[in-house]
Amino acid sequence: MLLLAPMEGLLDATLRDVLTRTGGIDRCVSEFIRVTSTVLPERAFIRVVPELLNGGRTRAGVPVRAQLLGSAPTLLAENAERLAGLGPHGIDLNFGCPAKTVNQSRGGAVLLDEPELIGRIVAAVRRAVPAQVPVSAKMRLGFNDDARAEECAHAIAAAGADELVIHARTKAHGYRPPAYWERLAEVRASLPAHLRIPVIANGEIWTVADAQRCREVTGCEHLMIGRGMVTDPGLALAIKGQGGVPWKVLPPLFQLFWQQVSARVERRHRAGRLKQWLNYLRRHYPQAQAAFDELRLLHEPAAIEAWLLRAQTDIEMPSTEVIPLLPAEMAPAW
After folding, report:
1. Catalytic option among 97, 152, 214, 220
2. CB–CB of 223/2 below 8 Å?
3. Bridge partners for 131 per DSSP
4. CATH assignment of 247-330, given 2.60.120, 1.20.225, 3.40.1350, 1.10.287?
5. Residue 61: exposed, middle, or buried by beta-carbon count in 10 A (0-12, 13-18, 19+)?
6. Annotated catalytic, 214?
7. Has residue 171 got a pLDDT over 70?
8. Contact 95, 109 (CB under 8 A)
9. What's the pLDDT tens digit per position in 61-83?
């Protein structure tokens, strides 16, 4: 099983929709929904996970698990109960976010120094949602170090989680390579038989070779991929031995991406979102470098839209296959 990772400010509902259309992804996890002091209204969950209006799936039919972040067990449980009523394909708990502002408010990776609290959070959420709703968690190896990684994994499993994703770095490591897959293997192996839940490996999976080595080193059959899929939208298919995604497939996807960005993002930030994705694509596609260079100094939506239409024409698709640009107010709604 291959999961698409959440990435705040990058891998949101728009990019989830586009990337799952390329195939190979079995499930997504949303960006975190922050829980601080109240039970959130339904619209707050739908804003982050608009797939809740589509049966909890992307338009390509890939199920989405909604993620909560916070540190208060009772409050998280109450929010999870409300969220479960909206039909997500499970609820995930974030113990891995390395962002300083999040950690300062006792959210994300900072809780990895408090395994007992992590256990209470998971247990409270598990009790609050129906038995058929899966509860999972995502953690890093630790905050400043990995000394308590086993404790955290044991606490999560013992509290009733159905699944655990481990990002094979500490908060202090950030996103710098390497990922410490050997350490992840040790944490996985430390779970006693009665706590042996599926462990999913995450971190530094950019290629098919990376995926193969990660599986060999960690012993994890299932993988979660983030930046690797943003960089190479065909990576999941390639890992499954089903080919990949050539560049000529991407211009129509850029159109879909732009339409949704135009509907959800302020005008002044729209061009930046497309450039952000192209910046990642440069790592895998030589053509992305030229595209990035063409768009680098463009900011007005009209100029971006003209480039998008040219990009589709340049790939020599039949005119019937060109996806027409829609005004922002007519972009597909959930």
Report:
1. 97
2. yes
3. none
4. 1.20.225
5. exposed
6. no
7. yes
8. yes
9. 999 999 999 999 999 999 999 99
